[in-house]
Amino acid sequence: MEVTKVRDAAILTTSYVAWTTIEKARNGNVLVLHVDFTKWDLTSAQIKIDSSSSWETWDFYQRTSSSITSWADTVDFHEITIGTTWKYEIILPIYADYITVSVKWTWTVSGSSMAIKALTGIA
Hints:
The chain is an all-beta fold. The chain has strands at 2-10, 17-18, 22-23, 30-38, 42-52, 61-62, 64-69, 72-77, 79-82, 86-93, 98-107, 113-121. It has a single domain (2-121), classed as GOLD domain (Jelly Rolls), CATH 2.60.120.680. The protein contains no helices and 12 strands.
């Protein structure tokens, strides 16, 4: 299991900010995020995951989710929304050489904080 400090505890912003890139993620097949979130006056915080197989071309792709309704498979951007102060463990399957984890907030920023550690390994 490899541990990467993605983000020290810091106030969130209105736009997604990618912090430390997780390298050599392909050595495993699971990404575990340990998220320490303090909400204060925020409505919620969002986390998104981007991945790439090439550092040179910077071709990061945003993780997606799909849902099937009336025989149609709809693909949409996958964002994780957190609305309560807590310590979260988020487990996601992965297959990429490089991963970025980005966060942003909704509503107001005063007093909010989020720290993230990423663990990659084999499930």
